[in-house]
Amino acid sequence: MEEVPHDCPGADSAQAGRGASCQGCPNQRLCASGAGAAADPAIEEIKEKMKTVKHKILVLSGKGGVGKSTFSAHLAHGLAEDENTQVALLDIDICGPSIPKIMGLEGEQVHQSGSGWSPVFLEDNLGVMSVGFLLSSPDDAVIWRGPKKNGMIKQFLRDVDWGEVDYLIVDTPPGTSDEHLSVVQYLAAAHIDGAVIITTPQEVSLQDVRKEISFCHKVKLPIIGVVENMSGFICPKCQKESQIFPPTTGGAEAMCQDLKIPLLGKVPLDPRIGGPRSAWAPSRVAPGAPSTV
Amino acid sequence: PGNLASVRHIILVLSGKGGVGKSTISTELALALRHAGKKVGILDVDLCGPSIPRMLRVQGRAVHQGDSGWVPVFVDREQSISLVSVGFLLEQPDEALVWRGPRKNALIKQFVSDVAWGQLDYLVVDTPPGTSDEHMAVVDALRPYSPLGALVVTTPQAVSVGDVRRELTFCRKVGLRVIGLVENMSGFVCPHCSECTNVFSKGGGEELARHAGVPFLGSVPLDPELTRSLEDGRDFIQDFPDSPAFPALSSIAQKILSETPVGLS
Which residue spans adopt a coiled-coil conformation according to this UniProt entry (chain A) (predicted)? Predict the structure, then answer.
């Protein structure tokens, strides 16, 4: 396991070595908002690298298990249906990288070339990168503290040879922590179009999603809109609808109205999506996001 | 010595995967243990997404300083369930705790060492998804108290099992015994026609338990009444003993109780 000092704020951070004083420090809020990391040279390098990437979209939630990776994958497939659109899908869930499995790319390896790491190409116009491709076994655990995860994300943004890309979709883990701060900071100079926020209808999800929305406001990340996933279930036998995750407080619709954020769409629970890859319905699942972008 | 000195058994609820029901299982386990006459504490170390206060209808309450440390929030008048969560420290419920690892680690250490838990039969520790700062911090902080082990929660489908395999490796690496694996969201029985649909696929949890050589504790099906109970902070174990989810939840509690008979310290 990684032996990083407990009070280290991050080896890559401009605050390196000042960690012990972070507790109760009046600058703490400043560090959390990312201003302290502005000195990192990687930010300029990433800005250069991102010049060939037209649009960058983060897929966030705050809540786990709502379908961020599923949505990211469907969005990527949907955008790549036009073979003239170059799409890149970056999975920055370092501990729980789901994208390789969802895209049917388990076991693929990443290659080094002169111009950097090559993403794994599912189609000619759809490239994917995930820490999953760097692990040798499905049982391997990535037991990393924040600073090491941040380093990986920096490498993904700076060292992957994405080439000319129309859309870079970034799938994130749940939460509002290292990965989220890092991706926003490292892309600070490169301009992120915005975030699509995924939720499920029930309050236990919305509770976390409101925090994620608050995070977006804090770091000045524009919100493209919210997608309500697992919104109702149609029984395949009797065709009647049930609410497995009831919208006890009005669901995403009420939250979006309340917070004045666009609701991009509602996606029902479909057992085929949870199962094998055979059931792609990209244009059904991702109606709002491409047109909004 | 320390604030966990009078806590008899510590159980961590882990997954690796988000949204599989760790907080749900933690809450239901606490309620079931209470119904078995036990005193239970819940430590919620999900700092970014603290779900448990709402599940026990104590959102908006506050943690106070006492003589021997922070006093946990009591969920009931009998003080049979106590809870500590970062949710109680936030000024606004929608406030995001945008903290990097080291600051999260520091708070988790405080939750373990500075809370006056008092005498408890069980301390259930709910965790966020992943294998990172929070998990390492809480395992390190609890190590001197020899936790009973970990309950690992998955859902049936491959994308969950994929993450949970890695969590089992984490348990092995940090020397945390796996009490057993629970497969949650295991099928949905249509209330209109009683047809059972495997909404999140089928069988992955049991197969994983077999592959990893850990006990399989059971499958908990999807029950909207369970979801609703958690949303409203109701006692599902008391209110819905006829639910299809009840037998599996009950058997998880039974497993814990059978491993920790009264009289053995």
Answer: none
- Where are the domains positioned within chain A? 1-38, 42-284
Which of B86, B94, B132, B171 is the mutation pick for testing A, counting most A CBs within 10 A? B132
Does this model's pTM top 0.90? My answer is no
Residues of B in contact with A146 (CB under 8 A): 100-102, 132-133
How distant is the Cα of B262 from the closest Cα of chain A, in angstroms? 35
pLDDT digits (tens, 9 = 90+) for A67-108: 999 999 999 999 999 999 999 999 999 999 999 999 999 999
Superfamily of domain A42-284, CATH level 4 = P-loop containing nucleotide triphosphate hydrolases (3.40.50.300)
Q: Tell me the pLDDT tens digit for each residue of A23-80.
A: 655 445 555 665 544 568 999 999 999 999 999 999 999 999 999 999 999 999 999 9
- In this structure, what token pair is assigned to residue B175? 């020397």
Among A95, A136, A238, A270, which would you mutate to test the B interface (most chain B Cβ atoms within 10 Å of its Cβ)? A95
Q: Which domains does chain B have, with CATH numbers?
A: 7-257 (3.40.50.300)
pLDDT of residue A135 exceeding 50:
yes
